[in-house]
Amino acid sequence: MADLTDTNKLAGGDKPFAAIMKVQKAAEPSISFAGGVLPRASISEQVSNRILAMIKSGNLKSGDKLPTEQQMRIAFSISRPPLREALKSLTLIGVLESRQGGRYTVTDLSPSRLVTPFNVLLSVADHDLQVQFEARAVIELELVRFCTERANDDQRTRILSLAKDGHAFYENSVGFRLLDSEFHQAINEGANNTLLATISEALYNVAVDARRLASATPGVIEISINQHCRVAEAIAAGEADKAVQTYREHLKHVLDTTTNAIHKLSE
To answer: Are residues 150 and 91 in the same domain?
Structure first.
């Protein structure tokens, strides 16, 4: 990769951008080890990493406009294809957005925006339910633990109340699904981790059609509500390990009943 930082080639207000690039490049560690030298990242990956590093350091903030493509090509001393590939990759993960006129802007970087590509991925019909429920377990079990450790008294009371209120919905699958969504959202709020909660919400909506059918199966709602109550009681008591273990059992129940419902839908 050619020198990315020839500040003499930039005009006026865009010299600082190149200067920042020069500092960033100088700060990068070498990637050699006793066993040899690792393959260098592609030019587009290097550019993506430079821009991400600027955002991480605060040199680029939400709402900042990047220089024009021509100015960035000069700053990075690269051709158009790798630059566009880098900008496209950062746009796909929600870090940049393209505005009218071809200029790229740093997004608000909110959790909901950054998880958008993840939501698109999960919306694909051809998905592996087992893999996605494994992902739910990784995220949601930790959220349950955080909730047990971090939730305030009002949040614990609400979680317990939502769990107990479920007993009135044994024969009302629509009402149960609304209550179920509120129950899981209350746990996420008690965990006090916005990014994990946003990912959890996306995973919660996986195979929602099959879960509608599953919730209408006799006995399924009653089991779920009893599990909700046990999880809520453990959270209220501050028993993190017990809450996590019970929630793990609940996720297995949801996976099993959803899988059975999918089989029925395919018949």
So the answer is: no
Q: What is the DSSP string of 140-152?
A: HHHHHHHHHHH--
Residues 193 and 221 in one domain: yes
Domain shared by 56 and 72, yes or no: yes
Q: Which of 64, 81, 109 is a domain's end point?
A: 109
Domain boundary among 87, 109, 131: 109
Q: Are residues 105 and 132 located together in one domain of the fold?
A: no
C-beta atoms surrounding 60 within 10 Å: 21
Q: 253: domain range?
A: 116-266
List the one residue out of 3, 39, 28 whose CA is nearest residue 18.
3
| Structural domain contains residue 2 | no
Which residue has 């997004």 as its token pair?
107
pLDDT tens, per residue, the chain with 267 residues: 443 434 344 444 445 555 555 555 555 544 343 444 434 568 888 888 888 888 877 788 888 888 888 888 888 888 889 999 989 888 877 788 887 667 888 887 666 555 555 555 555 444 578 888 898 999 999 999 999 999 999 999 999 999 999 999 998 888 899 899 999 999 999 999 988 998 888 788 776 777 888 888 889 999 999 999 999 999 999 999 999 999 999 999 999 998 888 887 676
